[in-house]
Amino acid sequence: MKSSSTRHCRSLREKRSRCSSLSSLFICARCATEIVDRQVLKVNGLTWHLKCFQCSVCAVSLSQHNSCFIRNKEIFCRTDYNSTFGIKCTRCGLQVSANHWVRRAGNDIYHLACFACFFCKRQLSTGEEFGLMENQILCRLHYDIMLQNLQHMSDKGNIIHLDGDLPIQYLPKPPKRPRTSFTSEQLQIMQTHFIQDKNPDAQTLQRLADMTGLSRRVIQVWFQNCRARQKRNPLHDSVPPQDRYQTFAMPFLSDNRYFLPSGRPETH
Question: Domain LIM zinc-binding: where (predicted)?
């Protein structure tokens, strides 16, 4: 996360040193004035007044902190450094934390819920083929439709600019009622929790939504359907056959294959 120009400073208290007004001349890296205080803060070869050692974003004093981040002589607390320079989701632009489930397409990183087709809004599953156009993700179906539309426009002699928006009449229409489908990973998480708690509260639903990449409403409806099936058939399994899964290990989500407009499918 830290570039070559970024240094992580630790043990700031140990960096303090008493200075003699006669032996050395210290210039504050923040206010550019001479430091004549009895104490001077030295970090990575730079010096500060104690009062000037503040986060460049939130202005909180870092002189009593054990760590900080410095980039281009600017000081940051951990929170503001991560929000400013941390990894962000290509689609929503929000920060990707270490505990987030993500998908990767080439050099781009997406939240699990953000990795969905631009047209039909369907979340794509692990190993599913997809296309990239204008930095937008398309499922294989709508990617093929888009290529057909582009070919049709080219055959009619229209000028195609791939760096701009396509005319709306050439865009494929999304289905009115897309059917929600679940991956094996998502089903495993929900079914495991259903055994422990058949009626989760709002906080638990949100936690499951973060883990699966599904919306909280979709998960809530899934639990409602399972409870209804169990109530109708108390002696039978409440999980429908199409939602059952086989136990398997899933330590990480693998990268997906995707199609580029001008080439064969590549694996990253």
Answer: 26-87, 88-149
pLDDT higher than 60, residue 96: yes
* Higher-confidence position of 16 and 59: 59
Is this prediction's pTM over 0.70? no
Exposed/middle/buried for residue 247 (C-beta within 10 Å: 0-12, 13-18, 19+): exposed
Per-residue DSSP letters for 108-150? Answer: EEEETTT-B-TTT-PBPPTT--EEEETTEEEEHHHHHHHHHHH
Contact 89, 96 (CB under 8 A): yes
Over residues 24-29, the mean pLDDT reads: 78
Give the C-alpha separation, 75 to 47, whole Å: 12
CA dist., res. 188 & res. 125, Å (int): 14
Largest CA distance in the chain: 88
CA contacts within 13 A on the Cβ side of 142: 21
Is the domain spanning 184-243 CATH 3.30.870.10? The answer is: no
Cα distance from N-terminal residue to C-terminal residue, the chain: 20
* CA distances to 185, 212, 230, 231, 237 from 240, in Å: 16, 19, 10, 13, 7
Contact status, residue 9 vs residue 69, Cβ threshold 8 Å: yes
Hey, what CATH topology would domain 102-170 get? Cysteine Rich Protein (2.10.110)
What's the CATH superfamily of 6-84? Cysteine Rich Protein (2.10.110.10)
pLDDT > 50? residue 145: yes
Q: 112 in helix, strand or coil?
A: coil
Can you tell me the distance from the alpha carbon of 164 to that of 134, in angstroms, rounded to the nearest whole number?
8
